[in-house]
Design goal:
4 helices, about 85% helix, mainly alpha
Length: about 150
Amino acid sequence: MILSLTLFTALSIALLVGTEFAVSAFVNPVLWKLDVSARTDATQRFAALLGKVMPIWYALDLLLLVIEAFVEHHRRGLPEIVAACGIWIAVILASVLWLVPINNRMVQLSPGSLSGPALREHKHWDALHRLRILALCLAFLAFLFGIFSS
């Protein structure tokens, strides 16, 4: 049972980190090469879809990390798992404070309006998103160290 939980947690976190990485490394570079109208449409669609799915996924992974910390409370790797929880919470808070508002504005763009201020804001979102990916990787590594040091 515990091994199944750990495997499911690791898989879910790895897939989330991979999805966020794919957005940054593959999706957004393609979006930047589209004409303004197509870029606006695609950005809106991605922002709307990921804006619905990712909050649930982030919350689920935080819940799994907390359960792991509870289950592993007697093991040597607990500090690393708790650190992973803390980083995950910080990422969620930073996302809600800085990334989600930008994402919501991207969803509200009028057709063909991803230029000027909106374009700069999208580039700012990209930069913040890369920092979020780094923090997610650190949380994942902390979790793995906690699991394997036990």
